[in-house]
What does this fold into?
Amino acid sequence: MKAAVVVTPGTISVETVPDPTPGPYDVVVKPAAVGICGTDLHIMDGEFAPAFPIVPGHEFAGEIVAIGTRVDGYAVGDQVAVDPSLYCGYCYYCKRSRGNQCENWNAIGVSRSGAAAEFVAAPMANLFPLPAHLPARDAALIEPLSCAVRGFDVLPRRLADNFLIYGSGTMGLMMLELAKRAGAATVSMVDLNPDRLETAKRLGCSAAVTDAAELDAPRGWDIVIDCTGAAPAIRDGLARVGRGGTFLQFGVAGYDARVEIEPYEIYRREITITGSMAVLHSFDRAGELMAAGVLPPEVFISHRFPLDRYAEALDQFRAGVGRKIIIEP
It folds into this structure.
């Protein structure tokens, strides 16, 4: 089969690799859509993936084309989305329902061969069956949405909070949509990219600016979320959390990113600083939200590329052009 392979950090090519075969509790999926996200850039840059070469692609949905001997409840031809998370189930954190902190953590498309290929293997336990009205070519959005759902799991649950979100790329826009449905009083967006701010306006944010200083918020915000991973945005966002508020580090920062904090201000204003990493008991809930129409695919998906143009799609994503970029193997 053909697959996009990150041969070494910074080098990617489409190559012929062996077809996957399902284990007893596995299925083989023919991906209809594979999303590109910031994690893929980190893999390309030599971070996250424990070994190379690696086939990326952890946001995906498609059709089951083969099943293992012990698979139950699924059949060839079923349309599914796949949670890429692979937890061991027996380590200290897994036993405490913290699988995303698994000491033996793996993921399809990160440490195991992923979906930027004609076929990919996945455990039966990680499947979400797609309803007939939700096309697999749009359902690759479920995985990033499940990360956003996990982000909201760690936030306080209060009606009429005021949100400030840095970054109006795919994840920032998903956070916007969830905040609206979580009862936010206002949701303001900050981004340096005017095209992305226009999309935020289209989705009904309260304000869309290139600098949070343009906004009138003398008391700060109840919830500040960074979806950029960029140190300047994180630094600015921490300073804008109101008394008793929460700062969520959601964007994936580089390993070498550093931001100074003011411990006295955290103490004085009783600020909570928290993080959210990947998926945790949130994939099926995201699938249900997607099936209910929470995200309009025609807004969130801006570009679709064939597998042979994976490197071009990755370069476009790095340049910040478009929103969710999809590979269609």
Q: What stands out?
A: The first strand starts at residue 2 and ends at 8. The radius of gyration is 20 Å. The CA atoms of residues 243 and 269 lie 4 Å apart. The chain has a mean pLDDT of 96.
